[in-house]
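On to my pick:
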Amino acid sequence: MHTTTGTLYVVATPIGNLGDITQRALDVLKTVELVAAEDTRHSGQLLSRLGISVKFVALHEHNEQRATPFLIADLQAGKNVALITDAGTPAISDPGTLLVAAAHEAGIRVVPVPGASAVVCALSAAGIYAPNWLFYGFLPAKASHRRDALVQLKALPYTLIFYEAPHRIVECVEDLAATLGGDRRITFARELTKLFENIHSLPLSEASEWLAADANRQKGEFVLIVEGAKEVEDNPEQQHLRETLAVLLEELPLKQAAHIAAKLTGIKKNTCYKLALTMRDDPTDEEN
């Protein structure tokens, strides 16, 4: 009878090139008793090419809730389990989150085995100065829901990163341009680390035409990197709020200053609090 539980390893696999795999991932996959895979046939072929033979169990978006208790039982029985996805890092716009959360809740050790990630790969090669960026994942498939989501993202000053499938790329890019504006730059990172890898940047206003010019540009898996909203100068209301907060923050804690500023200006407390946070962290505000 086992007296200790097994370990859940969250293992990154290649996103294209077989060489994306790390030595540590190979070592783990060779020693675990069980591999939970998004597509057992795909992963079986991958591990076979890597010279690894192991028992598989399916864990995908349609069965994750049902399969998780059985995998937790295996882990509690002392088996070591590796969680992998079809490509890249599990639980990043891929199945696995429920299993990882359940393992933590059950007191099972969860060990990440880092490696390839399409979003980081694309950002590193895009040449975009982006100290702050937001990875959204896949936008909604339905056009109206996609546009609604983009409206919510429009004012954010962060570089926006999305995944997109080839059959939706044209309409997605059209919605990006229509909702966010054509002046922003977009980087297409397509088929990363694969034979036909391509990284191309241009204004959003030209993106649809560029895609239409060559049908091959619409093929493959995409990472889309879109420039964030440009900061605009404060309007009079914002300037008044900033001046009010500057006085209050000299004498009061941040939360109390934001609360009083909201009462004095009629601006939402949450808005006051967010601006107060930026002013507290901005050395130029301390000097004024």
Notes: The first strand starts at residue 7 and ends at 11.
